[in-house]
Amino acid sequence: MEHNHCFASCLSRHTLMSPFVGGSSSRRFFRGESPADSQKDMLEIPLPPWEERTDEPIETKRARLLYESRKRGMLENCILLSLFAKENLHQMTERQLNLYDRLINEPSNDWDIYYWATAPRTDTVAPGFDLPLPRYIRVHRRHRWCHHTEAKPAPEIFENDVMAMLRDFAKNKNKERRLRAPDLEYLFEKPS
Fold first, then answer.
1. How far apart, in whole angstroms, are the C-alpha atoms of residue 163 and residue 100?
2. Residue extents of the structural domains in the chain
3. Where would you find this protein in the cell (predicted)?
4. DSSP assigned state of 125
5. Which CATH number fits domain 58-187: 1.10.1040.10, 1.10.150.250, 3.10.490.10, 1.10.287.1700?
6. Would you say 172 and 80 are in contact if contact means Cβ atoms under 8 Å apart?
7. In angstroms, what CA-CA distances link 33 with 37, 42, 135, 149, 183?
8. For the residues of 144-177, what is the DSSP string, one character each?
9. Tens-place pLDDT, residues 71-126
């Protein structure tokens, strides 16, 4: 007990003397924690604008899009887009590949892509609420609803047949277990 008291008093002394913990130090905020969400705490790294690659061979484009679908930096999109790519890239037309390229590479926020693909449509209303569904997302199987303010409608430029394919895929109608990106062995299988 005496040992714990000594540790507590040392910790208290250290805490009081530390310039990082005391009241005079500056505090680092995370997004939304600054007063009135002024976003002064946000660090924005400019991304180069997306440019369509007009001279890229179609098979090179498919390979690049497969890679870019897998390496998102965000697990949710990595899983969703890599599985979507596995199922759809091989049958997409060049026009659809260009639309998909723009969809996954032009937006600066991967969460936007995820919510555009997974958020319910805005033309329906959550049970018991007067708000459109994007503010309420179903969670679990018990038909609970949780508040969700991140979902924004997709910009008109992304509302196309590829987005419709991605949304349909995200519904997971076959109830597949989608826990990780697919292995790449399927690339080396002979077509049947």
1. 8
2. 58-187
3. Mitochondrion matrix
4. B
5. 1.10.150.250
6. no
7. 6, 10, 21, 16, 39
8. EEEE-----PPPGGG-SHHHHHHHHHHT-TT---
9. 887 888 889 999 999 999 999 999 999 999 999 999 888 889 999 999 875 544 44
- Residues 44-80: pLDDT tens digits? 667 788 888 999 999 999 999 999 998 887 888 889 9
86 closest CA partner among 100, 102, 66: 66
Q: Which amino acid, one-letter code, is at 83?
A: L
d(CA 146, CA 43): 29
Give residue for tokens 């002979």. 190
Task: Using DSSP, state whether 132 is helix, strand or coil.
Answer: strand
Identity at 122, one-letter amino acid code: T
Amino acid letter, 17 = M
Is the CB of residue 29 less than 8 Å from the CB of residue 41? yes
